[in-house]
């Protein structure tokens, strides 16, 4: 279970690739750079292996990685309004790396841009650890984080996040994998069916700022309680969709979030102990990004289901707090379960 060398980072350090396998033909490739999932192979309805996650071939592209393909996101996933927060009477100003307006996904050199310590403990399990020093990206406290990826025999990719700090700080970890269950050649995810067990989502305002209010999905294109194809209402005139340029919203999860692609038959069910999930449909994808095999990146080529605490929770009293107490470990788990064939929730 020795890793292979992925390449050299700009600073000269070496990044590696690890492969997790199970006996069912599933395979997950992960690099210790950013804990990025670079490949996720699932056999389709005919038994043919399909890579269902978007990514690049070259390490250098992951060093830039504007869409955060496959990366671990920390210390805080999603946005912190104005990059500002107050903790124990002290005001903190983080980088506003999203258009100068918000702190996004942990800042310029967030967890998806760090080289992690790694140990592949079994053919199906990889443990990554990182010490984020006091002041890293502007956050207080030395934070020790570990992320364990495990691929089970029942085709579940489990991601277990743990963190402990020596001072009060914030933590809200996720993984930013983009999925296209039709494989690498499909230009969009419009034909995918989604079902999200959520009655409410976090209302957004201009520039993805949080109003702190929840909105009902009832009667809106954000209602996935009954399955709906991603493309059906993605360009709807509903104010929340116009503001985001498609789906880019955090749901209050009551159960699971699931997707199904009829052409390959592959279905994915996401379950978590976290309260929220951001559905993002790759509205900002495109441009000149060169994907695996030299493919050109198209808009809405992948979707993300990023499990997390609600966005900007530190500034929104109604949301569950992202504050981590010193010496108290926090833990969460998200599971991506893959099956083949029309799922029960479609029937
Ligand atoms: C998240 C955000 C999106 C976008 C992507 C990365 O999902 O919600 O608005 O920033 O990350 O491109």
Q: Given the structure, what is the number of helices?
A: 2
For the secondary structure, the number of strands is 27
Supply the CATH class.
Mainly Beta
Question: Which parts are unreliable, with pLDDT below 50 for 5 consecutive residues or more?
Answer: none
| CATH-defined fold name | Beta-galactosidase, Chain A, domain 5
The unique ligands bound to this protein are:
alpha-D-galactopyranose
Global morphology: globular
Distance between the termini: 41 Å
How many domains comprise the coordinates? 1
Structural class: mainly beta
Strand content: 35-45%
Mean pLDDT: 98
Note the main sheet.
9 strands, antiparallel
Would you mind describing this structure in some detail?
With 347 residues, this protein is mainly β. The chain has one domain (4-191, 269-342): Beta-galactosidase, Chain A, domain 5, CATH 2.70.98.10. Helix content is 3%, strand content 40%. It is built from 2 helices and 27 strands. Strands 11-12-13-14-27-23-22-17-20 form a 9-stranded antiparallel beta sheet, with no helix packed on it. The chain has a 5-stranded antiparallel beta sheet with strand order 1-2-3-4-5, with no helix packed on it. A 5-stranded antiparallel beta sheet has the order 19-18-21-24-25. The longest helix has 6 residues, at 59-64. Alpha-D-galactopyranose binds at residues 67-68, 104, 248, 278, 280, 284, 304, 306. The site of alpha-D-galactopyranose has 9 residues, from strand 24 and strand 25.
């Amino acid at each position: 279970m020795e890793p292979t060398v992925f390449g050299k980072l700009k600073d000269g350090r070496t990044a590696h690739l690890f492969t997790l396998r199970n006996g069912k033909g599933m395979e997950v490739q992960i690099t210790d750079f950013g804990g990025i999932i670079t490949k996720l192979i699932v056999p389709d309805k005919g038994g043919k292996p399909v890579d269902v996650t978007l990514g690049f071939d070259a390490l250098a592209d992951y060093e830039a990685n504007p869409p955060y393909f496959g990366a671990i996101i920390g210390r805080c996933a999603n946005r912190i309004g104005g990059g500002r927060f107050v903790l124990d009477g002290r005001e903190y100003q983080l980088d506003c790396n999203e258009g100068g307006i918000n702190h996004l996904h942990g800042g310029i050199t967030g967890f998806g841009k760090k080289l992690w310590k790694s140990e592949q403990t079994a053919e199906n399990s990889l443990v990554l650890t990182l010490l984020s020093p006091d002041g890293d990206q502007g956050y207080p406290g030395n934070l020790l984080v570990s992320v364990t990826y495990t691929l089970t025999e029942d085709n579940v990719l489990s991601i277990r996040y743990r963190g402990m700090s020596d001072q009060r700080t914030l933590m809200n970890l996720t993984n930013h994998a983009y999925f296209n269950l039709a494989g690498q050649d499909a230009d969009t995810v419009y034909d995918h069916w989604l079902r999200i067990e959520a009655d409410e989502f976090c209302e957004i305002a201009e520039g993805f700022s949080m109003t702190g209010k929840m909105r009902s999905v009832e009667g809106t294109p954000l209602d996935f309680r009954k399955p709906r194809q991603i493309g059906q209402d993605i360009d709807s005139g509903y104010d929340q969709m116009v503001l985001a340029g498609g789906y880019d919203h955090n749901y209050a999860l009551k159960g699971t979030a699931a997707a199904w692609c009829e052409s390959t038959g592959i279905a994915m069910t996401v379950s978590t102990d976290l309260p929220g999930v951001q559905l993002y449909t790759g509205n900002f994808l495109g441009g000149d990004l060169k994907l695996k095999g030299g493919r050109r990146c198209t808009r809405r080529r992948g979707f993300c289901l990023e499990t997390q605490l609600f966005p900007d929770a530190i500034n929104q009293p109604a949301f569950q707090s992202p504050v981590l107490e010193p010496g108290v470990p926090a833990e969460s788990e998200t599971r991506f379960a893959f099956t083949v064939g029309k799922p029960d929730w479609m029937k």
